[in-house]
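Lab notebook, bench 4. Still working through the backlog of constructs that have no structural model yet. Next entry is a single chain of 433 residues. Request: give me the structure tokens for it.
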Amino acid sequence: MPIAEKYLTNRVTGEIGQASAIYFPTTEAEVIGVIQKVARDQQQLITIGGHTGLSGATFPDDHQVLMSLEKLNRILKLDPETLTLTVEAGVTIAQISDFLAETPYFYAPDPGSKAASIGGNAATNAGGMRAVKYGVTRDHIQAMRVILADGRKLEVGSINRKDSSGYDLKDLFIGSEGTLGVITALDLKVQPKPKFSRDILLGFESLTALAPKVFEILDSGLVPATLEFFERDSMAYAERGLQLAFPDLAGQAFLLITLDGNSESELTAALAELASLTEHVMVLSDETVRQTVWQLRGAIVSSVEMVSRQEPLDVVVPINQVAPTILALKSMVDKAGLSAVFFGHAGDGNIHANIIKNQLSDQDWTEKLARLLDDLYAYIAKIGGKPSAEHGIGLLKKAHFQKHVGVAELQAMKAIKQVFDPENRLNPGKIFD
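Model written out:
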């Protein structure tokens, strides 16, 4: 049976790859069987989660075997006594959210794609919109089951609150993009839902006017659950894509902020403090409006994809560099003669920019984009930033990652890869050569 094109396609570039086979295991034992067969046949394996990645990390560029974990999708247990949710790796973020909806608990990480699998989130250490207060995926994984390249099962981490018992192997696999082992199950940390939550939308005349307010908020002592920024141009793509209308609030750049906690009076005072930052303020007290705004925010990337090829960036910089970096990147894009929409998780230094091809010829696009990315990633490295906060390196950022990472750091990563996958069978050629 021919392999469906969606499993062969690089979502960002549109390139169609080549794979020798694809498997859909439904149990951990079947995962082990696929890995052992790949080893016997001296082939190479790429593991796929929700197929929502934006770095080319699951792209088959040389007839590798594909293994989709989408059918390894059971929620196994919720343990209220240890606040642990045990799930298989193919479970999606939407499934977790739906499962916990009728419980007193929630899983804090909130990445943009709710169709993403939890195994894929672990493989890229996905962040999301609540990272400013609650942290990223790494902070909410207590333990994992991982299958190594030779088929052995490894249990890493534990549900204990503290652990100083030898090396922390768990964190080696988180963010490794499927290059060290295949994650099959995870013990996730859940926590009680806050009693109160409030959302506020602030409008500014430009990103230049908005940018300094980010540091002002972070320096004020407020700890928002989310602190998102985007431009009206970004919203225009999402409005067209979803056929929804953004609220009638003046401004060309916006901050979307969620406050949560167990004291309603403290949230009311915090909202008043935020409202003093601009004259364009909307407290999202109407639930329909609130949900619409968040739907639009979450659909920016997919809506741009509907109309143009794009290069998605997810750089991260030190918190004190957020404001100047937003402005610097915007200037770089303008000087390169390209178009872009800017948005992101301002509260944790994670800046997203989607560089858009529009009507440029393939040659102009390739040449202008290459020059821009060389300058952009050099700037990010110079100020102490990193090329990826949550998408991962994959294929798309590999050259820039290798150029700006320290020599000793890269050597250490390659040595770790050699220990866990000496035959280079798992997701070869991703992150580094």
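Notes after review: Residues 196-301 form a domain with the Alpha-Beta Plaits fold (CATH 3.30.70.2190). The longest strand covers residues 196-204. Flag for follow-up if needed.
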